[in-house]
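**Reference record**
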Amino acid sequence: MKKITGIRGAVCCENTKEEITEYVCRMMNQIIEMNKIKEKDIISIHFTITNEITVLNPCTALRKGNSIIDISNIALFCSQEAQIEGGMKNVIRVLIHAYIKKNQKKHNVYLNGAEKLRPDYSENK
């Protein structure tokens, strides 16, 4: 039996095409591996970016990067993060809606400085 869940992640990176691609793929691959997600189980992937990220959409980075699953048939979406005074800069966040086993523990992934956002959710404390 499976249930729908939301799995979260975030990564900090510099505003370069290379770093965005590297870190988006690293974060996504870790989420996929840790949660044992298969392509057919993913409903959608929604990224948000802070206003400093301007050179590449994380959806494009995931499509062109080294993803461990085929994402060509998965709905991808990106939006601008709300600008909050004092908020962390250079952050890409992700929310994946997917089916996982009913009793499976979900693993959220925060990398490269983004662990500060939610240390209570982060597996990488």
Notes: Residues 17-34 form the longest helix (18 residues). Strands lie at 2-12, 42-49, 75-80, 91-101, 109-111.
